[in-house]
Design a protein that fits this description.
The chain is α/β, with parallel strands linked by helices and 235 residues long. Helix content is 50%, strand content 16%. It contains nine helices and eight strands. Bound molecules: adenosine monophosphate (AMP).
């Protein structure tokens, strides 16, 4: 075997590895904003699959830490249960840690972040040459309250239904797997009202910070109609 062929064979795995791991020059970042229960979570799952980018929900990251009883989870729990925002430094550390992992390099869809102007500024510093699309889902307060207080999550399979809009056939039982349906502690009426107040006080200013970069979408429609507008917005 000639030395050239041998050298080529030896470097081949590294060349292939490089091709897989190289991030695109301008990875796509979609920032999906909206009040609590505006449908962000559902749309984020679908849109990130369609775009083949990582879905990052700070709410999910925090709940995962609470479940695993990490130090960060213990610190965050009280704020979440009370419908308050978790302090910026905790959320920033959890999110930026996750964004350093290789699966985030091709692009991310941020769901529930940023929620304060300080978080938005930190994000601006973090990104360099990404293509950023900012979308806000608009939903009236009264719809948000019914969506949140009616939301039930299956403890076994994670399926979500709503006691007002899509009630289960048998009360408290998941239609999909027969598991037990539970209300999230932060979906109780008083907490939802508090979350809405927090949203208007702290997250609405983020929309003002981004100003005309924000693409507004009416989120008070059937999920498919909202999704078509989202697809259009990121194209
Ligand atoms: P979510 O699942 O996005 O509705 O988030 C649930 C809860 O997690 C919120 O009510 C906050 O207490 C907390 N949380 C999620 N994302 C953030 C964030 N970016 N900043 C501060 N707190 C957050």
């Amino acid at each position: 075997m000639s030395t050239t062929i041998l050298a080529l064979l030896l470097t081949m795995p590294f060349l292939l590895l490089g091709a897989v791991e190289t991030a695109p020059n301008n990875p796509l970042v979609v920032i999906l904003m909206g009040p609590p229960a505006s449908g962000k979570g559902t749309q984020a799952v679908r849109l990130s699959k369609e775009l083949n980018i990582l879905h990052l929900s700070t709410g999910d990251l925090l709940r995962d830490n609470i479940k695993r009883q990490t130090d960060l989870g213990k610190k965050a729990k009280g704020y979440i249960d009370a419908g308050q925002l978790v302090p910026d430094e905790l959320v920033l550390s959890i999110l930026f840690d996750r964004m350093e992992q290789s699966d985030a390099r091709k692009g991310v869809l941020l769901d529930g972040f940023p929620r304060t102007v300080a978080q938005a500024k930190a994000l601006d510093k973090y990104f360099t040459n990404e293509k950023v699309v900012i979308i806000n889902l608009k939903v009236p307060d009264e719809v948000i309250i019914r969506r949140s207080t009616g939301r039930l999550t299956c403890q076994a399979c994670g399926a979500i239904c709503n006691s007002y809009f899509s009630p289960p056939a048998k009360e408290g039982i998941c239609d999909k797997c027969g598991g037990q349906l539970m209300q999230r502690t932060d979906d109780k009426l008083e907490t939802v009202q508090n979350r809405l107040k927090v949203y208007y006080d702290q997250t609405q200013p983020v929309l003002e910070y981004y100003k005309d970069k924000v693409i507004q979408i009416d989120g008070n429609r059937a999920p498919d109609a909202v999704f078509q507008d989202l697809r259009h917005a990121v194209q």
